[in-house]
User: What shape does this take?
Amino acid sequence: MERYNRQILIDGWGEEGQEKLRDTEVFIAGVGGLGSPTSIYLAVAGVGKIRICDFDVVSPSNLNRQILHCNERIGMKKTVSAKKTLEILNPDIEIEEISERITKDNIDVLVGESHIIVDCMDNFETRFILNECAIRKRIPFVFASVWGMTGHLSFFYPKETPCLACVFPESPPLEKFPVVGATPGVMGCLEALEVLKYITGIGKNLKNELLVWEGKTMDFKKFSIKPNKDCPVCGNIK
Assistant: This one.
């Protein structure tokens, strides 16, 4: 009660909302720039179980934005480093580390019984795999992406919203892109907030809308998005 007192005070949250968090399992794909703030704020909020998945290791080039990690952990598996940090921040929750590359063949097993998928990846190929898994399991999928000082965010939910493939039919080319750490910091915090709102039932999730944040001008803009009835991924959901 002392640890979570300040958030329990939020109107509509209370002990019931905190118990919902305790009983929820979240799958976070990627523990880099986006996954760092997302997992940190879900952990300290008291989400009962967090499954973190990433196959990479910590490198010096990560450290301008991936705040789960530090210089002493260069060369360590990111999931191992992330678990160490998250368990220090909140030893009362369960962190499951999965050091595997996400593929079409293993994604359903990796996600397991999670109640929601959070996309903290840096490529659309993997995002499309996560999107399809969310549709099969009929669970929400929180999407975010960053580029330089710009971020995108949306909340996809099978049958209630478009899916990722409706909005982005094709994957952009893979390339090394610019990014300053504060950008995934902002977007990762917003992803965590979308998850917390969904679990507690407080507020309104970003359904049927794409949020675009422009850090250079501090502009937040929302654009309406609609399902594509001919979408090969979600068009035949019943």
Q: What stands out?
A: The chain has a mean pLDDT of 96. The chain is about 35% helix and 20% strand.
